[in-house]
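Summary: Need help interpreting a holo structure output

Steps to reproduce:
1. Submit the protein chain below together with the SMILES for adenosine-5'-triphosphate.
2. Request a joint structure prediction with the ligand placed.
3. Inspect the structure token block that comes back.

Expected: a single structure record containing both the chain and the bound molecule.
Actual: see attached output.

Input attached:
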Amino acid sequence: MQATPLPPSDAAPPEAASASAARAAPAPGAVSRLLALTRTRPGPLLIATLAGIAAAILSLTPNLVAYQFSLALLHASLDQDRLIALVGWLIGGTLAGRLCFLASQVSSHLMAADIQTELRRQLLSRLVNVPLGFFQDHSSQKIRQVVIDDVEQLEDGLAHLIPELTSHFIAPLIVIAALFAVDWRLSLASLSSLVLGMVACMLLMRKRHDIAQDFYLNQGKLFKAMTEILRTMPAARLFNSGAAMQDRVEEANGDYVGTAHRWVRGALLPNLVMQVLVSSPLLLLLPLGLWWHQQGSLDLATLCFFVFFTPGLGNLLTKLAGFSNRFVQQQQAFEHLDMLLGAPEQSEGSHTSLPEKITIRCEQVSFSYHQQAVLDNLSLTLHPGTTTALVGGSGSGKSTLVKLLLRHWDVTSGRILLGERPINDYTREALRQNITCIFQENQLFDMSIADNIRLGKPAATEEEVIQAARSAQAHEFIMALPQGYQTVLAQGSTLLSGGEQQRLAIARAILKNAPILLLDEATSQADALNEHRIQLALSALAADKTVLVIAHRLSSIAHADQIVVLEQGRVVEQGPHAALLQQQGRYASLWRMQHAHDITPAQPTSEPSSPALS
Ligand SMILES: Nc1ncnc2c1ncn2[C@@H]1O[C@H](COP(=O)(O)OP(=O)(O)OP(=O)(O)O)[C@@H](O)[C@H]1O
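--- attached output ---
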């Protein structure tokens, strides 16, 4: 007989899944949501449930055969034919039960796989339409956990819990009805201990819901601490803080083991009650039955019927007790799915073509990350064929402006115009085709170097790829690799230095040749010699384009057509280098600070003239 459930022994659930365990709603939420998912596939669910009910009833075959056997003994009619018939019933009933169980499982698993596939499709289509900034708020690990682990978690609910819950609920009802049809007094006697046991067990298990949540919460913390120690291992060793990290894991481990022990201890009493009352329904039934038999109001055959069937009924009922904990996990999985499915989608315009030469106008643009204001009433015009440099302290909002131009987010107020139209009027594809952005961080994919560059222009010939790589000063180091342009850049590979990775991204941008060029610290990792050469390549690329450059090193942007100084999301100064120096304001003091140690008087670098790069 199945006892009350103990903590699962499997691996830790997703970090996010467990972290919010404390907020998990009671199981009925999960039941109705699982049922809602199955609504699109009523056929397989019906087959799974009916076959499950049949399997549950047929699981009582041994009880029935034992009853018939005892009757034959009682009436001294156990001849060879009867014995063979009983064995036949036993084998046939058991086989039929297993077949029904298999049919139920096959149907429910096929249904679950279909629903999971559909759900993943929905999640991916949602991910395609959320603003790109969503991926900054939610780590790829967290998103992966939802799309893979949480959807996988629902398999238990769809393929097992829903059909089994129904069959383990309906089958006992049918058996109870049969018992009452035979003798209501014995039925009450059998059921009273079962009902008493179930109620006592439920009362004792009330607090176990909290323990289960604590268990998953601590399991999540342990998982998080382990992930963190693995992620930060190199830095932790460098700063000799490995021991502190280990202490944190030890602490999380202690909490986890503590709750696991608490769970096991808490399960002891309900188990005991279950064993005594639910598993021993004969305690009341037998004395009462024998007494009624002696009184002459009950025949022995009926008593035998109850003696053999009541334990089977207890078996069916106690299986239900094991479901509550699994529904808690289902509820958690749904909460995480809601995080993705409830993410607002970004609207998309219908215009597919941008003008050849694009003026970008930011009109009174304000933007907040959640509640934190980052850009404040910013107005700015970027003309085609010119370079605008954004400078300012860390956190002043430079990268945020670039991200608004890429529609990672939409402005909170004001508007951004590309040509005469608001940026939101264009399709995402049109924006992708017309804007190239090079960030500071690695933007390479798990494919060959040639294919990485070719992302800029999928139809590019081999010569064009090589030419772009030459312009980006990448050809030499590519050729030095054993497989040259066919070298595959595995994810997380340390094959290329930061500067080399940036040069590949620049080669891709050169190949793409889009009319808008956004450079966010694009050459920050290049060495002096390569930076100079790349600047020359980008200068050629920038001709006739609308260019926005973010730079920390002012000497590299001093030749920009206009320099915009941002402070706390506001434009505080704007103009060409010389004019800004003359103003003796914020830019001039930044310039002086950066050139305080120069021997020669501060001068902008002599080349290139455009664009100015970081
Ligand atoms: N995804 C985000 N969610 C919440 N706040 C953010 C997010 N990205 C940036 N911020 C905050 O917005 C402000 C502006 O950030 P932004 O990256 O635009 O500054 P920046 O001028 O480019 O800085 P840096 O020169 O250091 O790169 C900062 O306070 C930053 O913490």
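--- end attachment ---

Reviewer comment: The chain has two domains: 15-339, 360-594. The longest strand covers residues 372-382.
Status: needs-info
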